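May I ask for an example protein's residues together with how it folds?

___
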Amino acid sequence: MSILFYYVPLMILTLGMHGSSVCSSEETRVIIDADTANEIDDLYAIVRALIAPEFRVEGVTSAHWTRSTKSNTTVHQSQAINEQLLEQMGLRATIPHPIGADRSMPDSTSPVDSPAARHIIERAHAGDSDDKLIVFALGACTNLASALLIDPSIESKVIFAFSDGDYKDGHWGPGIFNWKNDIHAVKAIFESNVEYIHMPARSVSVEMDLAKREVDEHLKGRGGVWDLLVDRWETFPRTANRETKTMWDLALIEAVLRPELATPVVVGAPIIHDADRVEQFPDNPRRVTVFKAIDAEGMRRDFWDAIDAAMAEIDTPLR
């Protein structure tokens, strides 16, 4: 049985970006782009977005997780899990899930074309500057940057939201993983004028975690996607025996859904030299929004409240 979606008017998600709000429409159009097979937090973030009555998810696209400019199989692994997750939620036939780039960009001006990049472009043009598409990058942002380079006219119609590169005490720093997996894509986005939201990993989203005890209490034995989330925790090598797990990507979704749980600032974009060198440019006219803090406990409560509400919407466990 699929989850029953229900929509309510979306609160204005004011982040101070250029003096405007992220969106104020009744349904916020979003695409989730994720390197889902690389970690477990991607799955939790995707599910959170899919059950949000505030979001209209117009795509779940797959991302690679390699720093190579040669074709590789990692995106296919992410694609397989995306399809499994959507199948378990009864959404595979209704939510587009095109595959993304199978490699990193060779430089900041050369896109890697893919069905995912083309889908971002198509859905961007379905709206306008008053109905922007938010594209969440939970992995390397190759698909986002490539879409922008292939069709620069989408710049005024999208908001890009990315999780990784650091920002602490007013200073930008390099990222941990996603940032380095395609630094040329990061550079292309910072050098554009696309509306941009940044969730630092090393100093901010690191605070967001979930406990296995809570996962078992809320999800275990409930069938369908809920047991898929439990199984992913228990079988993924890096989390199989862990009592807690940092939910990097979930923090970004929660921050946009619940702006009262995050503290944004609008600052000058940095100059990206390479994966490890970031030049500060506080007076840069290119302004971006970055979260400098989150209420991790509030996000945890909101996540479980949303999960419990989604479960209450169905008569029987998902099978």
The longest strand covers residues 55-62. The chain has one domain: 26-312. Residues 1-25, 315-319 have pLDDT under 50 and may be disordered. The two ends are 6 Å apart (CA to CA).
